[in-house]
Amino acid sequence: AGFATLLPHFVAQARSGLAAHVTSGRPEVMARLNAIQGGLMSRGLSATASHEGALRMMDGMLGQQASVLGFERMFLFAGLAFLLVIPFALFLRRPKGVPAVKVDLH
To answer: Are the beta carbons of 32 and 14 closer than 8 angstroms?
Structure first.
């Protein structure tokens, strides 16, 4: 339940961090947007429709990247939690003097 709660939070953080760098003042963003828009126009869309479509596609790419970063952070968090729990496995040993119970599986 904790991971299900934290994952959307991590994705939202990643999305806001990425969105801060996707601005119309950056030449690489405008080059990508123009390339997508040109591709849509070559398929027969109008200039307005291709611009809106390019913006939606950029938003989708941003969402995908945010999801990847959120999952990466969640995976790291789960790994660290696992490493913290491993030492407790030493306390799960059977106390001395308690006989082992044989279970017939067949």
So the answer is: no
89/79 Cα distance (integer angstroms): 16
Tell me the CA distances in angstroms from 53 to 46, 56, 80, one per residue in order. Answer: 10, 5, 41
Q: pLDDT tens digits, residue range 56-79? A: 999 999 999 999 999 999 999 999
| Residue range 20-54, pLDDT digits in tens | 999 989 999 999 999 999 999 999 999 999 999 99
**Per-position b or e across 34-59, b if 16+ CB within 10 A of its CB:** eebbeebbeeebeeeebbebbeebbe
